[in-house]
Predict the 3D structure of the following.
Amino acid sequence: MAAPGSAKSTAPSIWQSGLRAISLNMAIPANDLRIVIMRDTIHGEDHAVAAARLDGHWLTLDNRRMAMIEDSYVRNYRPLFVIGESGILQYHVP
């Protein structure tokens, strides 16, 4: 996943605790897991997906598609927030 151009970090959250638990249970480094809140630009709805880095590529798991898709192939979504081990980052639209 590309890093947000301009981001704001906030206090740790329950989401971060959940990511740490997943990391421990699945033996995936916590810095390779994210929850991404995105805007569906077609339907005008916000939607959350899980993201994991595998072999240097970010894959998203989206329950609307029931498939893991590399982030570079995700279309019609605009990231709003990324929740990770280091905090919550907010994307700023230019």
Q: What stands out?
A: The two ends are 18 Å apart (CA to CA). DSSP finds one helix and six strands in the chain.
